[in-house]
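Per reviewer request, we include the raw input and output of the structure prediction for the construct analysed in the revised manuscript.
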Amino acid sequence: MTAVLDISGLGKTYKSGHQALAGVDLTINKGEIFALLGPNGAGKTTLISIVCGIVTPSAGTVTVGGHDHARDYRAARSMIGLVPQELHTDAFEKVITTVTFSRGLFGKPSDPAFIEQLLKDLSLWDKRNAKIMELSGGMKRRVMIAKALSHEPDILFLDEPTAGVDVELRRDMWNMVRGLRERGVTIILTTHYIEEAEEMADRVGVISKGRLILVEEKDALIKKLGRKTLTLNLADPLDAVPAELAQWNLVLAGEGHELVYEFDSQAEATGVPSLLRRLSDRGIQFKDLHTEQSSLEDIFVGLVHETKTEERAA
């Protein structure tokens, strides 16, 4: 794989003394979708702002497409498109004017055909002559995306792109992301909708308290850290979990009609066969059973919780 973004030892400490980032190392490959997850205040937006040239780092280096961000800023920045959380644009400008102007800011030659197709892809062509102030919140978000893509960047940052938008725009957004990836554009996104990261991302990074605590292939992460839950639907309800079943740490649910067992699916001995034999020996019958794999959200919450616990212990 070819690296398109390389971050090394990146740190940011503000004058107040707050350390927003601490020694972040990250390499992003060309054409991948990378999801950066973390709680509020974890450092996601600071990291994106440094790479996009909005915030100056206290330490470390950023290389974009082989261009050192500090020494060759113009070339590095021209490869990046940013859709920020906040909607910042001139309310009195027409849609087509503001998108065309954004293209010109990066020194790109005029290309009306490209702008037209871009606006059509984002369902904005019919609104091309409308002023920004006349648009709905969802349409304004589309304009921000069009501005970010106007100069045909190699890397697109999406900072909480679907926060507070309607279902239709969210669907259009992810269709657009898939299309961009097919054309070789690298997508880096932050999101609170972890199910979107689970569906879209190739790799996942988890940041907490300014530190990148994990970077992993999404499927490998779920396989490695994911746990499974076995739920048994009992033929007859139980008042309590029998003492003889204590070693499995079962939970009684569904008003006594369900026994729930959580286990590590990668373990050599999951405990499931022995549990089923013990239930049979005791005459506890079940009508049905099903298993569920823990989601990316479950893993994310667990990782952040572990980090906070370790910090308190230290």
